């Protein structure tokens, strides 16, 4: 059995960065990856391909620095191996050339990345139809370039592959895009937040400009995909664009509808998974440190959730009533779950999350009134929801003693009316401890 301080499954940017950081801190790290060389999806084969395939672009070549950081005595890399089981321990079971081995360490990091979102349509399994990401794998690892391909679907990878093909002298025949004008309008409301990452937006606009300059025909608002085998063995691709039926013949149809976290290993490790409303995908429930709620197991990189600049991150204690409220009220935000409230406050102070939800009193006493919370404040308005929080705090009286219940209610109404309640409130709390009332109550 192999022993280490930290086992990392996946040698993509997340796994490589974690390995280099842990090794610099003195840990013995074992990295396992099923590819022949480290790099992951984005930097696949960067060590050998960056020099020979300049058309893969400067972002690709930038991965070489991560690779160099792996050259450390504390890091051992096993490539060409498939991890197929994660057990309590944590222990991982992996195979190479049909021989299985076991490795054990106090800490395990699952950094297995993302996979393309599978979206079936008639003919999607025909020879001559494949995911655009898979074609990019062949471009990176073998220098294979498809001629006259049609790219169909949506997402940044579609545009990136189009530009890489243009630069490699194998421009695609057409770009068939599923997003509609209404999708763009819906996305426009995220623009102010998106501008915080203007460099990425600029990069995206640059890709679109390059596609336009190369004269690649674009078919927007496309739907009703259907692929059939043509008489010459190619593909007849039919679809509707802006309400008009279209038909294109191509030797290779490359489809793509974004990427989703690859959860095979985190599921195998017994990690809890949640539905991500922003990414519309299932992802492991991890806190801001990647801790996955199972002793010694962490998840990082795209496998923990596709990093999206547009999503605010709201922290909340796992299983608390605030989780219900956060998921219901902020469907566009990324809800980050934590084991304890202390961890939520710590990550808020470190800037790992943008906001948090907890009881007002706890937020005030444990965070806002401390040095770390000096630059933070309550969000305006009452956050009340009978479904998640119930009807609030009450005073219990003996069953049927309506006279006493009425006396309490009248007394509370009277002190709220004459300002006594406000005076007591203000002496102790910088917010209204009484709270608001849900509509209709
Ligand atoms: C097909 C594809 C192509 C992409 N191309 C680009 C691109 O060109 N540019 C870009 O910006 N983004 C690209 N992305 C997005 C990309 O996922 C991220 O930008 C980035 O690579 C994520 O880094 P990561 O370290 O989280 O995971 P990854 O880079 O995906 O690395 C995960 C690693 O885990 C290994 N692994 C997974 N399961 C196992 C297992 N069971 N046993 C052993 N090893 C395992 C994989 O071999 C892989 O090397 C692509 C995504 C996909 C799915």
Automatic annotation (TrEMBL):
KW Transmembrane helix (keyword) present: no
Residue ranges of domain Solute-binding protein family 3/N-terminal in the record: 218-432
Family annotation (Pfam families): Pyr_redox_2 (PF07992)
The keyword tRNA-binding is annotated on this UniProt entry: no
Superkingdom, natural source: Bacteria
Keywords per UniProt: Oxidoreductase
InterPro entries membership: FAD/NAD-bd_sf, FAD/NAD-binding_dom, Metab_Enz_Cyan_OpOx_G3PDH, Solute-binding_3/MltF_N
A single MF term (Gene Ontology): oxidoreductase activity
Identification of the protein by name: Transporter substrate-binding domain-containing protein
